[in-house]
Task: structure prediction
Amino acid sequence: MSLQNCYNKNLIEAGCDEAGRGCLAGPVFAAAVILPKDFFHPLLNDSKKVNEKNRVLLKEVIQKEALAWAVAQIDAPEIDKINILKASILAMQKAVEKLNIIPEFLLIDGNKFIKYKDIPHKCIVKGDGKFANIAAASILAKTFRDEYVLKMHHEFPIYQWDKNKAYPTEIHREMIKKYGITYYHRKTFKLFEDQLSLQFLE
Result:
């Protein structure tokens, strides 16, 4: 199924998506993208359905050809403070705020969003597989987050974040049990089974 370019052809529309909601560590990232109405790229799809090499290629294409794009992040302490759903929405709002073109309409991946200023919006479940502008936002959010996680990995290689991208894999949970957590970890998340106490790794 080919992607639709936008939901509303008569308005300046930004697609928005986030990456990293289910991770145990690191920020949640979000992107907002305004594409030309005739934009097309054969590889563009939901970032989860695109391999890493093509995601990097698409990132460059989107940054070059989008009318406007922006990426924002909310770090772990803020996620712990306000919860991951609110943090994901806030990250998307911050990305919209950073756009150098003010959108007239926001197309949001998922089923929840809090109205940003007076810009109307529409939530689309699995929108990253239906609309090009949301798919483009998903690519940017994912690639920017992966780059950030790689920096985290170089700081704390024991968790193998270069492989698991900070998601709750068996190895990641085992390393938390063995070595404790870092300041990147989201303390309000269930970091391992039978969670009792948390030790910090300096």
